[in-house]
Amino acid sequence: MDTIYALASARGKAGVAVLRLSGPGSHAAIRRLCGDMPAFRRASLRRLVSEGLELDTALVLVFPEGESFTGEASAELHLHGSIAVVQSVLRALSAIEGLRLAEPGEFTRRALENGRLDLAQVEGLADLIDAETEAQRRQALRVLSGAVGQRAEIWRKKLVRAAALIEATIDFADEDVPVDVTPEVSDLTRAVLGDLKREAAGAKAAERIRDGFEVAIVGAPNAGKSTLLNALAGREAAITSEFAGTTRDVIEVRMELSGLAVTLLDTAGLRQTTDPVEQMGIDRALLRAKAADLRVFLQTGEDVPGIQPMTGDIVISGKADITGSGVSGKTGQGIPELLAAIGETLQRRTADAGILTRERHRLATDRAIRAMESALTEVEKGSERAEIAAAELRVAVRALEALVGRVDVEDLLDEIFSSFCIGK
Amino acid sequence: MKHFDVIVIGGGHAGSEAAAAAARMGAQTALITLRADAIGVMSCNPAIGGLGKGHLVREIDALDGVMARAADSAGIQFRLLNRRKGPAVQGPRAQADRKLYRRAIQELLAAEPRLDIIEGEVTDLMIDGGRAIGVVLQDGSQITASSVVLTAGTFLNGIIHIGDQKQSGGRMGDRPSLPLALRLADMYLPRGRLKTGTPPRLSGRTIDWGRLEMQPGDDSPVVFSFLNTEPKARQISCGITHTNEKTHDIVRANLGKSAMYGGHIDGFGPRYCPSIEDKIVRFSEKPSHQIFLEPEGLDDDTVYPNGISTSLPADVQADYVRSIRGLENVAILQPGYAIEYDYFDPRCLRPTLELRDFQGLFFAGQINGTTGYEEAAAQGLLAGLNAAARALNTEPVTLSRSSSYIGVMIDDLITRGVTEPYRMFTSRAEFRLALRADNADQRLTPLGIAIGCVREDRRKMFEGKMSTLRSARSILEGRKLSSKDLAESTISVSQDGVRRSGYDLLGFGEDARAAVDLLFPEFAALPEPIKVQTAVDALYAQYLHRQEQDAHLLRREEDTLIPDDFDYSSMPGLSAELGLKLARQRPATLAHAGRIEGMTPAALTLILAHIRKAQRSKASA
């Protein structure tokens, strides 16, 4: 097994730069640089010296095998965050036999390979590192703690029990196995089904926390949509003019709102037109607006063709600077209130966010739900369909196992590890 | 010195099937047994088939084995178990006349031109450089062979217990194979100890049948072999009676005298076939247990009371048996006994049942930790085919879990080993809806034809059946009906605009059959068995389609090979116990690894990650 090292913190100038080593040779490398071996798990100040040359004074942390992130013997060097210092230490490490620069994601891969994390936890870690908002951070941390695996195991146990009851009536028909198992099988299946449906309902919100919400601003031409977007974004993201139909393409602005990642969409003004280019812009606007999580309708009194506000959408009059009420991108009137309203609406939707944060999780859950629903139908039909009910329960159990990576692992590993970069 | 292609040691159910299979494959075969007249003896319950077991018998028959045909000749009460459940979990079962069964097996073996039967005791295996090359008999003579199949049953270090009395033996009245056991001990194969029990045998003349509930066989018996349509022997009924509080009191008062409870036995017994002592201790709240009184033959007075196996002393057995209704004056012909025996850890075997460390040596039957005639015969069949393949230098024959119960059993044995005598259940087969007793021939006979173990008469019959099945299918699929077309019929379908073929309609179940007959008169005119088979295929078609994904995953895991020298010790994430298990068992594929006891999803991911890491470093090197 190679010993690997890499810069764990971001590149470039910083107060502190963290360099990480993992593998059987990591302790020897530390001893060579520091002159001695600091006590395990205690921050120790050391002068790093290589070939008689002092490189830096660093805080050194050493972890024993079995008690580190990767599960291997490992160490961290907290250097002064200078590009030159980091370069010199990296060079010194590269000169040591048996050490090499880590590949992207290799620390996490080793953590998985050494059983320190399961697949869902690796996903949670990736999300945690990518987290930009508070909600994303909390959610990722929950997944990282192994919540998916724990819940899946509980559901799985119940379903295995239900399946076992049916199997008993099939395989021991000729013996003294009495009783109608239908009530208990139904109860167990229904309980898991209820849980899973709740989780599935929250899965969409969880996915949104992870990937961000889309909020579209829609309205008639010249309603002030682009001006509003710029005001909300606090910068000139969209071109504004007094000419109707200035915005043709969909303009996206990413921002954080009440701790949530939000992408604001500015869209073309909606009206009947004979201009083919403007029509393409309108079609695109309608498509994106309909698919968005929330729409803000800027009213001007004119009709907007092609789209109606949906439940929960915000309808507000634009150009408050002229009309006196509503919101104005120009003067800033009503902007804090609008932001608060958007934030509140989205917050409400995340309240029921579950632990299923990825499409993979949702697909597995959906498969399990469908199988359990047919199992229930078959169980009700009586004993002549017992083997089919049992088969459906098996499908559900397998789907739950897939949640924590029992099957389909092959495709996942590359995907997961390719989303990591060096040193994480 | 004599030479054969294949030597089979043992004439039980595994040995008979192995010898017949090797001979059918074209191998010159010798079956060596202590007594030729004991070939095909049923040493325990005189019944063949049942749930899961019936499936095995059909699969043996699909590969032209002997068990199904012998059982059809000897069956005196046929019952299809789970008749009220779906066809996938129905299992044919028959009470057999011991004498007729033994005779049928012996006749079938005698008819094999390439099979010699040799009486004698094998005292040693000839091993040369890790290869089996023959056997030594008690008189010192040697017989050489290219492969050897050992089916020693319970004869290895067998000890029979009745109460606190014990004697060595393989079966009541037979001696155990001590020299061979010593020889095998030298081979350092990991082994364990199992136990199994038998009930006292009763004299039928002394049973008061008039006071008992009688259970006849089915009105239209379902036989085992695809070559047969009806039983050959006269059909009889079995009796049913029950234990009662008094029986339980007697057993409870004498528990200390039981070999199993008195601490005389080390082996593990099966959970699914408990002794009467076990039943009364473990299910103390049950006031009564059911007993089937099964006649052992048409002209045999012996009755096998199924459900009260025991290792209590003979006088206690007499006491508790006579407390049972209808058995008040019964005479016991032979007391029940428990038998302990050695088995070899089947995780030492390849999927061909050849030992991993000894080329040309195959183990089959109870020696691998299984119980039951059917399980033994099925292993014998596969070992026989592969012993012949080894001798004749043809491709090995392996069966997948997705193709057969035999595949499921062998995979279970070699990946998980056993902790109790292994018995087949339908729930062990995850592709149960596809692996049915009714379609065993469709699943396996084509393979049998390809490898050469299926004879001409069966091949012709099978191909005829398949062509009729295909035309039945094309009649039904030739015309698609709308919901309007079906308005007149008794089938109610939703008005969804979907046009359905006759095959789709048959998938609706039993109730649709009459309507389909009316709609497709050409189909109605086909022979009944063909129609039934088509209906069963149709019933499961939609589910099988959905299982395909799982089957695909399984095949992918089966295709992910784990190198023989894969180093589990360098995977610190594995629990020590699991790491040790994996290192010992050396699973050949990811699919095997996944079924090792105690395997967790995380551990499996770990192994896969390591395989890929090894591949990566190999690719970059």
Low-confidence stretches of chain A: 406-424
- Order of adjacent strands in the largest pleated sheet of chain A: 3-4-5-2-1-6
Our measurement of the CA-to-CA distance between the termini of chain A, rounded to an integer number of angstroms, reads: 19 Å
Q: Could you name the ranges of chain B where pLDDT drops below 50 across 5 or more consecutive residues?
A: none
Mean pLDDT across all amino acids of chain A: 80
* CATH topology description of the largest domain in chain A: Rossmann fold
The CATH superfamily of the largest domain in chain A turns out to be: P-loop containing nucleotide triphosphate hydrolases
Distance between the termini of chain B: 53 Å
The 3D shape of chain B can be described as: globular
Q: What portion of the residues of chain A fall into strands of 2 or more residues?
A: 15-25%
**Category by helix and strand content of chain B:** alpha+beta
Q: How would you classify the quaternary structure?
A: heterodimer
Q: How does the major sheet of chain B shape up? A: 7 strands, mixed
SSE-based structural type of chain A: alpha/beta
Helix content of chain B: 25-40%
How would you characterize the largest beta sheet of chain A? 6 strands, mixed
Mean pLDDT of chain B: 88
Please tell me the total number of domains of chain A.
3
What would your notes on this structure say?
The complex is a heterodimer of chains A (424) and B (621). Chain A is of the alpha/beta class and 424 residues long. Chain A folds into 3 domains: 3-113, Gyrase A, domain 2 (2-Layer Sandwich), CATH 3.30.1360.120; 130-202 and 356-405, Up-down Bundle (Four Helix Bundle (Hemerythrin (Met), subunit A)); 210-349, P-loop containing nucleotide triphosphate hydrolases (Rossmann fold, 3-Layer(aba) Sandwich). Chain A is built from 14 helices and 11 strands. In chain A, the strands form 2 sheets. A 6-stranded mixed sheet of chain A has the order 3-4-5-2-1-6. Chain A has a 5-stranded mixed sheet with strand order 8-9-7-10-11, sandwiched between helices. In chain A, α6 runs antiparallel to α7 (182-211), α6 (147-171) packs antiparallel against α13 and α7 (182-211) runs antiparallel to α12 (359-381). The model of chain A is unreliable at 406-424 (pLDDT under 50). By secondary structure, chain B is an alpha+beta fold. In chain B, strands 1, 2, 6, 7, 8, 9 and 20 form a 7-stranded mixed sheet that branches. Chain B has a 6-stranded antiparallel sheet with strand order 14-15-16-17-13-18, with no helix packed on it. Chain B is globular. The N and C termini of chain B lie far apart (53 Å). The interface between A and B is large, with 42 and 44 residues.
